[in-house]
Each structure stands twice: as structure tokens, then as C-alpha cells.
Task: inverse folding
């Protein structure tokens, strides 16, 4: 039995291939070793797999996740090894999942644009260069959290067009004066901010909303993509809900920076599955 897992901070997508060739894909909660210890991860996997799952039948696991790099990688690896006793275990970053799904063993600029943002330059299947995203508080340009935060800031400052101001209030029943306290009261402000990209998607044809998204992607290219050596020589390949939903805006900004978009996909799982077969 083969398991491929791709985990963000919100959810983990599992692909299980059984000995008869059948494949099952399902989602459980996100598993991030930066915020969870080994015991929590073990219990979360048990809950997600259900009581009838036979862990000893698994022979290979490839787990890709946010936070699965550096010193924290072993936390996830130890948790998996304690459950899947008969399996080899390979743990790598969500960035490597994106790279393998988008360019395989080839070369190109690879980006994750979902709730958060990450990027790297892949050459011959390996990460050769990386510009630090700096996370939600300092960076994450182009991410759902970044775009949602821009929308909230403009709304709180009465800086949106009157029509969009009214539509936002009708949609969420939040007054501009309430945004500040509401934002800082969130345990996970990045997810809270990213949730407002639904509004941006719904009204993307309005010039005010289009401008927010385009400006956010322009910041992404200025502060991240253009920092890569010879960046215009590579296609830019993206995975994630934000890249997928706003792909037309992303492609327009890429052209303005002298670049071409390669593959854009919502999730890496289908192509990861093909990579490991």
C-alpha cells in the first residue's frame, strides 16, 4: 500500500493506493510540526484514518507539508514511523510537493499561492534558490492572506469604491470601524484574512476589486519573483487555490514582467501521484 500526503496548515490531502490498484483520496486536518507536537500529530492521523484502517499494511509513505523542513521535519517523520511500522517514510516540504507536481525533475520557477505563499527555483528537480516569503506578518505577497488583508485595510479606511463598500457590508455585516478589533482578535488572522478572497473572486470584474488582486500579484513579482537570478529565462509555475482562481490576473501580471506562466493547478496531488508511480 502506498500513501502520498500533501498537508497545508488547513487540511491534509491523503492519496492511498491499495494493492489491487484502487486509489482513494480524502482530507483530514492540517498537520504542521511548527505548531503541533508528535503526540498531537499521531492522534490526529488516527482520527483521520478511522478505526478500521490497518496501518501495518502500508509499505511506502511520501509526506509533504508546510513546516516540514529544517529542524521540525523529524517531528512529522517520528510520528509517521510510530504509526506505520512496516513502511518506509519520506518527509519533505510543501515546496518540494509543488515542485515535483509542476516541473517533475525539470527546471523552472515554482510557487505556492494559497492561504500563504512560497516559491523556489528548481533546476534538474532540485531546489537551487529560494527567496524567503517572510510569512503572513512580514510578507506572503500574492497569497490569499495578503489579498484579504489588503481588502480589509481598504475597507477599514473607507478607501474602496462606494459600491464595493456597500457590497462588502451586505455580504459580511461588518462595519469599517469593527475591522481592527475583529482582525486582532483572531487566533489565526492569516486564515481569517484569506477567507475574504471569496469576496474578491465574486466581484473580480469590478475595477476596484481587480485592482486589489492585480496590485497584490504585482507586489509578489516585485518582491519575490524578480529577486531570482535570471528570472525572465524561466516559466513561472504555480499551485494553490489563489493561483488557480485568479489565474487570468496572474498571467497578465506575469506578461508585464516579461514572463510566461507554465502550469497552474489548484492542488499538487494528481501530479504527485503520477510522479511517484
Result:
Amino acid at each position: 500500500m502506498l500513501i502520498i500526503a500533501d498537508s497545508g496548515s488547513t487540511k491534509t490531502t491523503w492519496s492511498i493506493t491499495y494493492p489491487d490498484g484502487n486509489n482513494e483520496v480524502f482530507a483530514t486536518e492540517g498537520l504542521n510540526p511548527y505548531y503541533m507536537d508528535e503526540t498531537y500529530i499521531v492522534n490526529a492521523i488516527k482520527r483521520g484514518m478511522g478505526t478500521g484502517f490497518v496501518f501495518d499494511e502500508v509499505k511506502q509513505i511520501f509526506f509533504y507539508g508546510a513546516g516540514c523542513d529544517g529542524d521540525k521535519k523529524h517531528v512529522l517523520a517520528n510520528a509517521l514511523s510510530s504509526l506505520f511500522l512496516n513502511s518506509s517514510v519520506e518527509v519533505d516540504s510543501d515546496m518540494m510537493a509543488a515542485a515535483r507536481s509542476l516541473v517533475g525533475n525539470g527546471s523552472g520557477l515554482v510557487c505556492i499561492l494559497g492561504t500563504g505563499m512560497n516559491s523556489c527555483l528548481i533546476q534538474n528537480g532540485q531546489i537551487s534558490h529560494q527567496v524567503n516569503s517572510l510569512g503572513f506578518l512580514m510578507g506572503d505577497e500574492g497569497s490569499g492572506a495578503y489579498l484579504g488583508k489588503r481588502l480589509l485595510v481598504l475597507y477599514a479606511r473607507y478607501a474602496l469604491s462606494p459600491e464595493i463598500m456597500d457590497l462588502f457590508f451586505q455580504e459580511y455585516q461588518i462595519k469599517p470601524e469593527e475591522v481592527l478589533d475583529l482582525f486582532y482578535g483572531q487566533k489565526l488572522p492569516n486564515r481569517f484574512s484569506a477567507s475574504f478572497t471569496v469576496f474578491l473572486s465574486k466581484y473580480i470584474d469590478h475595477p476596484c476589486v481587480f485592482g486589489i488582486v492585480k496590485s497584490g500579484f504585482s507586489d509578489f513579482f516585485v518582491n519575490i519573483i524578480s529577486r531570482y537570478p535570471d528570472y525572465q529565462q524561466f516559466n513561472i509555475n504555480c499551485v494553490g487555490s489563489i493561483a488557480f482562481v485568479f489565474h487570468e490576473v496572474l498571467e497578465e501580471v506575469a506578461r508585464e514582467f516579461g514572463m510566461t506562466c507554465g502550469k497552474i493547478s489548484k492542488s499538487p496531488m494528481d501530479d504527485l501521484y503520477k510522479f511517484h508511480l
